[in-house]
Design a protein that fits this description.
Elements lengths: L4 E8 L9 E8 L2 E6 L13 E2 L7 E7 L2 E6 L27 H22 L2 H4 L4 H24 L1 E3 L1 H6 L11 E6 L4 E3 H6 L1 H15 L3 H6 L6 E10 L2 E8 L6 H10 L11 H5 L23 H10 L3 E7 L3 E9 L4 E9 L2 E6 L3 E5 L6 E4 L3 E6 L2 E7 H5 L12 E5 L6 E5 L1 E9 L13 E6 L5 E5 L1 H7 L2
Helix pairs in contact: 1-3, 6-10
Length: 475
C-alpha cells in the first residue's frame, strides 16, 4: 500500500471485538487518515519503483522489490480504488519437512561460503573503487545483506536440538546401589547436527564417570549429611558464539591428591612438580588413566576420558573443570555451533596470511622489552599477567621470512591449548573474519600445525592454524 504521508504512531483503546489497548501506525491516504495495527506492520520503506503487472485487480498497482523478493503494491482509494480487501494469512496446521542428505547440505554450505565471499571480492576491486556511484554502492550493500541471510538460513538447516543426546543418558543413571535423579535444561539448544552426533559418545563417557567416580552410595551420602538421592545435571546454553554443555554432579568431587599420586606412579608428572588444581584435574583425560579401585561394567578400564578429549579436540572444542571436595564436580565442554564455519583472527607473517581460531585466543599485545627474557635451555619467554609463557615464532615454525625478527616490532598473540598457554609471535594483526573451512586435501593432511584453509575477503587463501599441533611441535 502506498500512503501519501506517514504521520506517526498512537495508542488507542481496543474495539468491542478486542478489549485490549493497542498501538497503531497512523498514515494518510490522500486527504483521509487511517490506522494500522503495529503488529501487522512488518517494515516501513522509502518510495520504491513499482513495476506494473497487467490483468490484476483494480486495487493492485504492481510489484516492488522487497528485500530481494517481489511484493504486490496496493494503491490508495484516491488513486482509483474504492476499498482495500483484507486478506488473512493462513498458517499450515503442520509444518512440512523434507529429508536431505548431510552431504548435500555440506556441499550447499561450501557453495554459500563462496557466494558470501563474492561481494567482498567485488567491493575490493581496484577498478570498482574508482567508480563513485551511490546506486552501485547501495546494490552491493543489498547483495551483501542477502548473501548473509542465505548463509544464516543455510547454517540453521544443519542445526538440531541437543535434547535427544540428553535422553540417551537417562538409562545410565539406573545403576544398582545408587539413587540418582537426572536433571536437564536447555534441551532445545541447537547446534550443528554433525557435532550433536559426534558428541553422543563423549557425553555418555562423562555421565559414566560421574556415576562411578563422583556419586557415592546412599549409605555414604547419608553418613555425610547429604540427600541419599544424588543429582546429575545436564545443561546446554549459548555463550559468545559457542555452545556450552555442563555435566555436573553433587558427589564427592575430584580427589586432588589421589589423582596426583596416580599420575606420579604412571610417570605422567615428576615427583615434587608444582601444578595448579586445574592442571591436576586435567590429568584424568590422559590415556589409560583411572583411579577406580576395581574394574566394572561402567569404568575402571582406563578408557573413556581420553576418548572424550580426543573427540572434543576433533570438534575444535575445549574442556574446563570445577571441583570442590565433598560438594561435587562440574565439567564445562565448549563446542563451536558448526564445523563448517569458524570465526578467526587473521594475522600476517611476511606476505602470508594465517587464521587463528578466535576461541583459542586469549589476548594480543605489542610487547615491551621489560616483559621479554631468555631462559637457558627453555627458550624465549614473555611475562603475561604475572605468568611466564613460552614464545613461539610462527615464521620459524613454518620457515618463512618475516618483516622483522625483533619481538618488540611485532605482535604476541596469547593462545590456549591442552598443553598450556603460550605466545605466538606474528608480524601484524589483519582483523577478525568469519570464514568457511576448506580441506587441504591428501597432499597436506600430515602437515602439523595446520587445520585447513579458507578464502579471505581479498580473494587470498589463508591457512587455518591448529594450535595444539603448533604447541606439540614447538621446541
Amino acid at each position: 500500500m502506498l500512503p501519501t504521508a506517514l504521520i506517526g504512531s498512537s495508542q488507542v483503546a481496543g474495539s468491542p471485538r478486542e478489549d485490549r489497548a493497542g498501538k497503531y501506525l497512523i498514515f494518510r491516504l490522500g486527504s483521509e487518515e487511517f490506522g494500522a495495527r503495529v503488529l501487522k506492520v512488518r517494515e516501513i520503506m522509502g518510495i520504491q519503483e513499482v513495476t506494473p503487472v497487467p490483468h490484476t485487480p483494480v486495487f493492485v498497482k504492481g510489484v516492488i522489490n522487497l528485500r530481494g523478493r517481489a511484493a504486490s503494491s496496493a494503491i490508495s482509494p484516491m488513486e482509483g480504488g474504492n476499498s482495500l480487501p483484507v486478506r488473512e494469512e493462513r498458517r499450515a496446521s503442520d509444518a512440512a519437512s523434507v529429508r536431505i542428505e548431510t552431504a548435500k547440505l555440506d556441499h550447499l554450505m561450501n557453495m554459500v561460503g563462496e557466494m558470501v565471499i563474492a561481494p567482498t571480492l567485488i567491493s575490493h576491486n581496484s577498478h570498482l573503487a574508482a567508480i563513485k556511484d551511490s546506486r552501485l554502492v547501495g546494490d552491493l550493500t543489498q547483495l551483501t545483506r542477502i548473501t548473509a541471510d542465505v548463509q544464516r538460513i543455510t547454517t540453521s538447516m544443519r542445526m538440531a536440538p541437543i535434547g535427544l543426546q540428553f535422553q540417551k543418558t537417562a538409562r545410565l543413571v539406573r545403576k544398582e546401589g545408587k539413587q540418582i535423579v537426572l536433571v536437564t535444561s536447555g534441551e532445545d539448544t541447537e547446534l550443528d547436527k554433525t557435532i550433536a552426533e559426534q558428541f553422543s559418545d563423549p557425553l555418555l563417557h562423562m555421565v559414566r564417570n560421574s556415576i562411578d567416580h563422583g556419586i557415592e552410595t546412599p549409605e555414604q551420602r547419608g553418613a555425610t549429611g547429604k540427600d541419599p538421592t544424588a543429582r546429575i545435571r545436564l545443561a546446554a546454553y549459548h555463550r559468545s558464539g559457542q555452545i556450552v554443555i555442563e555435566i555436573a554432579d553433587d558427589g564427592r568431587g575430584l580427589d586432588r591428591e589421589k589423582i596426583l599420586t596416580k599420575a606420579v606412579e604412571r610417570g605422567l608428572v615428576k615427583t615434587g612438580s608444582q601444578l595448579s588444581d586445574n592442571e591436576i584435574f586435567l590429568l584424568i583425560f590422559e590415556a589409560g588413566f583411572s583411579t577406580a579401585e576395581k574394574i566394572t561394567d561402567i569404568s575402571g578400564r582406563g578408557v573413556g576420558m581420553d576418548v572424550v578429549r580426543k573427540h572434543v579436540q576433533k570438534m575444535r572444542g575445549r574442556i574446563d573443570i570445577e571441583s570442590e571436595a565433598g560438594r561435587g564436580t562440574t565439567f564445562f565442554i565448549k563446542l563451536p555451533l558448526t564445523l563448517a564455519i569458524i570465526e578467526g583472527l587473521v594475522v600476517a607473517v611476511g606476505e602470508n596470511r594465517y587464521i587463528l581460531p578466535i576461541f583459542s585466543v586469549t589476548e594480543m599485545f605489542r610487547p615491551e622489552p621489560s616483559v621479554l627474557s631468555t631462559v637457558q635451555g627453555k627458550g624465549e619467554k614473555a611475562i603475561v599477567r604475572g605468568r611466564l609463557l613460552p614464545v613461539v615464532r610462527l615464521y620459524a615454525r613454518f620457515g618463512l621470512e618475516p618483516r622483522s625478527r625483533a619481538l618488540v616490532e611485532g605482535m604476541l598473540v596469547v593462545v590456549e591449548c591442552e598443553e598450556r598457554p603460550f605466545c605466538l609471535f606474528v608480524d601484524d594483526l589483519v582483523g577478525k573474519q568469519e570464514v568457511v573451512i576448506k580441506s587441504l586435501g591428501e597432499t597436506f593432511k600430515d602437515v602439523r600445525g595446520l587445520a585447513g584453509c579458507a578464502i579471505l575477503g581479498d580473494g587470498r587463501v589463508g591457512l587455518i592454524l591448529d594450535i595444539d599441533g603448533i604447541a606439540q611441535g614447538r621446541s
